[in-house]
């Protein structure tokens, strides 16, 4: 395997293993900032050794073992940490190399969920909680988090640094809380799991359109949370949304890994079991609380697509109405953009274009590539091919995902052919 291929493989392994690694190390050292540093040290060692020695059969266990040894060395050198080292020695059976996988896999209320609740502690601001958790559990880079929240990268970096210091100084426990404390942190935990799933569903950057393992981990955490908080309607709403969205994974990309848009997907290949699970979770959310919260409303929108046997049978007026309700409980320019799409599908592209044009001045959407992408699609449907091409090219220049850029440039090429009066592009 070439060095570049090894590097790509290491990057992929890191995206898969980093959250478990940081969670397991946090359990050991009780310092989330130190845990992240130790994980990064293990990654550096892997990048130095694996190109020559080869990638181990269990790279996650290798990384954990390497990081664990460094943690023990650090504890030995630090008198301040001597007590923690002694505690680790008394319970070392949890961290023997033979049992590394068991120690990381956990159970209900596992290390990953404990880490989410730790980083969502009320000692941190809401923005800091979300940024830190996405960094540690979602594996998102600082600039990716900044783009998700439409703020400067330096702002996110400062939030993350301050958050880790605050958690350490406040000696926040590594645990899943109960009672009122659980409810107090629940909304942020739900938001983080939701954002983790979204990053997996449509990757912000890189060479892949989707990151299924990140979605699977978010869905697993959501299911665990539903067991811990069974009476919370929004927990079931989020699980419903993730179950239904996950049902489409087989059809979201073609054999070449290129994106397949919702209206072009083969619905016969959607996973009916996940859809049934999602609809059941949505039913539980509806029975537990009314009016519906933002996650349950989004699940209801996804359910409209799931119930339509073909794209033509989609109940777009109902989807538009659900987006209207969502805009009231979770107002945002992105929700308005989605509502414009639904209205265009229900009542024609001209109506949708009016709404999209009204969003052009929104500062939050200034660098959001889906704004020109949606506008290009509406202009294409109105046969304004020259304007549509410009919008697709603009969107392509703004996205950081390679597969999405390719899709947008193909749409732009199609517009150029139409504009010239030709047939379909090759």
UniProtKB/TrEMBL annotation:
Domain annotation RNA polymerase sigma-70 region: ranges: 23-79
Matches recorded under Gene3D superfamilies: 1.10.1740.10, Winged helix-like DNA-binding domain superfamily/Winged helix DNA-binding domain (1.10.10.10)
Top-rank taxon: Bacteria
Domain RNA polymerase sigma factor 70 region 4 type: 115-167
Pfam families (alphabetical): DUF6596, Sigma70_r2, Sigma70_r4_2
One GO biological process term: DNA-templated transcription initiation
Record domain DUF6596: where: 185-285
NCBIfam families membership: sigma70-ECF
Protein name: RNA polymerase sigma factor
Organism encoding this protein: Paenibacillus arenilitoris
